[in-house]
Amino acid sequence: MPDQHPSAAPAAPAAASGTNARPLGTDGGAAGRGAPRQDWTLEEALALFALPFPLLMHQAQQVHLAWHNARQIQMSTLLSIKTGACPEDCAYCPQSVRYETGVASEPLLPLATVVERARAAQAAGATRFCMGAAFRSPKRRDLEQIGAMVRAVRALGLETCVTAGMLEPGQADELKAAGLDYYNHNLDTSAEFYGQIITTRTYQDRLATLKSVREAGLKVCCGGIIGMGETLRDRAQLLVTLAQLPEHPQSVPINQLVRVPGTPLAAGPPVDPFDFIRTIAVARIMLPRAQVRLSAGRESMSDELQALAFLAGANSIFYGEKLLTTGNPDVLRDQALLQRLGMEPEQRLQ
Ligand code: SAM
Ligand code: DTB
Ligand code: SF4
65-342: what CATH class? Predict the structure, then answer.
């Protein structure tokens, strides 16, 4: 008997089988693309994951081409503005005070240093500057300083993003008033698996911060991590949760776990690269309008694997030699990769 992929069975719903007439990932509105769907079910997401790889890639590319300029990649540069000594216990994170990872802690950087780094990122070709702070949640004085950083970086003509832990509604409003464009706060994984990774804040806490951010009028950057021991079902459920938010996040980072010695997740089986690409492709289909960012983990990926991620619909990267505390490909390698692929950095600010 010839091998039969599980998805060859007739159970796949229409959205995954490619047989329905409406554009994939949308409600089929009159404009051709329609509005992004917010009624994705876990069964539909799983059916997408179960598609033969070439069919999944084909569907992801159809969505990608309908919504985006597939030549362009958005480039964001990260800077850790406050490093280490974080009280939370996120099992993947080298910045938690609970793990011996060798990360030296540093208080909030001076404004001048942040501006200097933002200028350098802009000169290298980044259009967004993301400031990451290892806080459970920022205090009043922290937020004032971060607001000043946002104002100064925005004044350079860069888009701004901050990630600094949990926010109350008033704090999100304060950042919006400072001119912040995006706030990054990841769900990281499914609600079901979450408790095995973090115990010091709940999934509900994360959803509450996302609500504060959205309601302040900030753009939401929210995604997760692949490779923490989660099942395919957890990956599918994370994407369903993102797609069912009152509004799709405008930016969706898909991180591959960087295994940092000293963290509880330091040892673990590697992620199958094709499963990683599948996650990007399903994210592209379910969240058609979002920027899907090929995020942490690129340093260990071949150029060919990154090209597959772009084919699957990733259209944003972190650009610059460092993420927060770990490495990232150097800018010359990234520039060469885009050039070899006939692709280019996105110039336009959203
Ligand atoms: N402390 C803030 C918070 O957790 O909300 C902001 C900074 S935190 C480092 C931002 C995100 O980076 C995390 O939510 C997680 O998704 C990602 N991250 C942290 N360590 C990582 C690792 N080792 N590999 C992949 N992603 C990681
Ligand atoms: C996100 O999703 N990934 C970035 C950013 N948001 C803040 C952080 C990745 C961190 C990787 C581990 C480190 O460098 O410390
Ligand atoms: Fe702290 Fe953020 Fe790291 Fe969790 S992910 S330990 S909250 S810095």
Answer: alpha beta
